[in-house]
Amino acid sequence: MRSPKRKPEGAPDWRDETLSRLRAIILTADPDVLEEVKWRRPSNPDGVPVWSHDGILCLGNTLKAAVRLTFPQGARLADPRGLFNTRLDSKTVRAIDFGEGAPIDEAALREILRAAARLNSSKRKQR
Predict the structure, then answer these.
(1) Beta carbons within 10 angstroms of residue 27's beta carbon
(2) Overall pTM surpassing 0.85 (yes/no)
(3) What confidence tens digit (pLDDT) does each residue in 51-69 have?
């Protein structure tokens, strides 16, 4: 018997809606962003959404209690509004967990995304 708290298979829930909102913000933050789905596995047939511009900007994961945007070079990005709230002990990666009903500071998120794109572009030019 299914737990009444689980969503029916394929039915959208708050995580799907949050990821959809984040996706829209990401796509409007950088007109040159490339969206892909990577790392499809039997345990995760939908894969992981990845947004890139001269390298990965961020990737999205739906967790049990949060939607997480992970920035592989997040430790090198300024975060004046304190959006990064997890993976803070990593020397490179930073992430933002959005819980159910959590507000999204769209302007601050767009600035982090644009900073990540600038960082990736500057690294590419150095090669």
Answers:
(1) 13
(2) yes
(3) 999 999 999 999 999 999 9
Question: Which tokens belong to 23?
Answer: 């996706």
DSSP codes, 29-84: H-TT-EEEEE--BTTBTT-EEEEESSSEEEEEEE-SS-EEEEETTGGGS--TT---
Q: Where are the domains of the chain?
A: 14-122
Q: Report the C-alpha gap between 76 and 49 in whole angstroms.
A: 22
Using 50 as the pLDDT threshold, list the residues of the chain that sit under it: 1-8
Rounded (5°) CA angle 55-59-60: 165
Phi, psi dihedrals of residue 48, rounded to the nearest 5°: -120, 125
On whether the 14-122 domain is CATH 3.90.1150.200, my answer is: yes
Helix (H, G, I), strand (E, B) or coil at 20: helix
Distance of alpha carbon 106 from alpha carbon 68, whole angstroms: 15
